[in-house]
Design brief:
- With 426 residues, the chain is α/β, with parallel strands linked by helices.
- It is built from 14 helices and 17 strands.
- The protein folds into 4 domains: 118 residues, Methylthiotransferase, N-terminal domain (Rossmann fold), CATH 3.40.50; 115 residues, Transcription Regulator spoIIAA (2-Layer Sandwich), CATH 3.30.750.210; 117 residues, Transcription Regulator spoIIAA (2-Layer Sandwich); 56 residues, OB fold (Dihydrolipoamide Acetyltransferase, E2P), CATH 2.40.50.
- Helix content is 36%, strand content 21%.
- The chain binds 5'-deoxyadenosine and iron/sulfur cluster (SF4).
- 5'-deoxyadenosine binds next to strand 11.
């Protein structure tokens, strides 16, 4: 989501004559686009701002701003805490940025805009995209979240759910594909609840069908899905849509029904497992990745064991594992949380160990296979190497010409590392 927001910021500011530079030292304007899903995000943002102070001391005309979730959460407080900060803009206020910047440039005013906007205004403010010849791009289909999982700050900082009209989404994908994009990821905080509250609008599976038909689109993905909104119709898309990749990121958070209830997730362990079974029936090659929280308030060893069991039963190709930490305004922040940091850390380590073992078995099973790789660009490994991704979103580095960018090519997997494969063009 923040990548898309940053792209929009670049487009808006190019209208004021700004262009991107490589470092804060060279810049006339520095903007931090923040996310508060991660632990201690506020502290990290203040830390970053501190690093700009010496530059501002040398060049007082430098404009410094903060946007995104932390800006939404902190608001005016940031201007009070950081006297050299010029502007703060919230998650609904990216379009106010040019005005805020001009006020800072011309009148040296310090501004803060963090009001949530109404649905109509937000729908009208969907971003103009910058032209970039990029193989893989994101398209936002919905914003905000109404789920209020008890640990999560997103509904508080991103506001209520809205879905874009499907016609607009399809038109945007068509435009990107005509500019050379080969892979689209449809994005939303809770992407598969797309249009559930909008009568007469295409459902999310129908939207996938429409996008899948677009000539020239090789690959389609979507993120992030909520298990409670994984309908049979959506699950069937994995078996029937040729562009839809054989991968889904489906956070389960906890394997214990008691904890899932406290988290307000709206599904049980059995519900989750039954969706996984259906997904595998629809598309036997599918691989799953997930998010898990360890150490939620009140989690007991038996709850944690249920999480480990679920992980073993499903066999996730990868997992993002998080140690619970409270977020302001959330329901879980008020729940009694007695377990020591040591107990939680021990569970976290055990979880990680199990995930590493599982991931290693799954990714090592690719050794020797020939897989279709969509080539995205030059590899970080060095001259003469390119990288791309498999249908499972696994990065593969291999020797090849830059002319391959944008093509799907067969690559034999020759080595497996923790985060990527190494291969040879066949
Ligand atoms: N503590 C720990 N992890 C969290 N996540 C969200 N909020 C918290 C929190 N308060 C994790 C969830 C979510 C991922 C993006 O971040 O697993 O799926
Ligand atoms: Fe947060 Fe996702 Fe739950 Fe929404 S569905 S509250 S974004 S964890």
């Amino acid at each position: 989501m923040n990548i898309v927001d940053s792209e929009q910021i670049v487009v808006l500011l190019s209208g004021l004559g700004y262009s991107q530079v490589d470092s804060a030292e060279q810049a006339d304007l520095v903007l931090l686009n923040t996310c508060s899903v991660r632990d201690r995000a506020e502290r990290k943002v203040y830390g970053h701002l501190g690093r700009f102070k010496p530059i501002k001391d040398k060049r007082p005309e430098l404009i410094i701003g903060v946007g995104g979730c932390v800006a939404q959460q902190e608001g005016e407080k940031m201007l009070e805490k950081v006297p050299y900060l010029n502007l703060v803009f919230g998650t609904h206020n990216i379009n106010s940025l040019p005005d805020l910047v001009q006020q800072a440039e011309q009148q040296h005013l310090r501004g803060c805009e963090t009001d949530f906007l109404d649905r109509e205004t937000r729908l009208n403010l969907f971003p103009e995209r910058s032209f970039q010849e990029t193989v893989s791009r994101f398209v936002t289909v919905m914003q905000g979240c109404d789920n209020f999982c008890s640990y999560c700050i997103v509904p508080h900082v991103r506001g209520r759910e809205i879905s874009r009209p499907s016609l607009e989404v399809v038109a945007e994908v068509q435009k990107l594909v005509s500019e050379g994009t080969k892979e689209i990821t449809l994005l939303g905080q809770n992407v598969n609840s797309y249009s559930l509250k909008d009568k007469g609008e295409a459902s999310f599976p129908q939207l996938l069908h429409q996008v899948n038909k677009i000539e020239g689109l090789h690959r389609l993905r979507f993120a992030t899905s909520h298990p409670k909104d994984m309908t049979d119709e959506l699950i069937e898309c994995f078996g029937s849509l040729d562009a839809l990749c054989h991968h889904i990121h489906l956070p389960f958070q906890s394997g214990s029904d008691r904890i899932l209830k406290l988290m307000n997730r709206g599904y049980t362990r059995d519900d989750y497992l039954s969706k996984v079974e259906k997904l595998r029936k629809s598309c036997p090659q599918i691989r799953l990745t997930t998010d898990i929280i360890v150490g939620f308030p009140g989690e007991k060893e038996e709850d944690f064991q249920a999480t480990l069991d679920l992980m073993k039963e499903v066999g996730f190709a990868d997992a993002f594992t998080f140690l619970y930490s409270p977020r302001v305004e959330t329901a879980a922040a008020k729940m009694a949380d007695k377990d020591s940091a040591l107990v939680k850390q021990d569970r976290f380590d055990r979880l990680l160990e199990l995930q590493h073992q599982t991931s290693s078995v799954i990714w090592n099973s690719d050794l020797g296979d020939i897989q279709s790789v969509l080539v995205e660009g030059k590899s970080k490994r060095g001259e003469g190497d390119v990288f791309g991704r498999t249908t499972w979103n696994r990065i593969v580095n291999f020797s090849g010409s830059i002319q391959l960018v944008g093509k799907v090519v067969p690559v034999k997997i020759t080595d497996v590392f923790r985060n990527a494969h190494l291969g040879e063009l066949v």
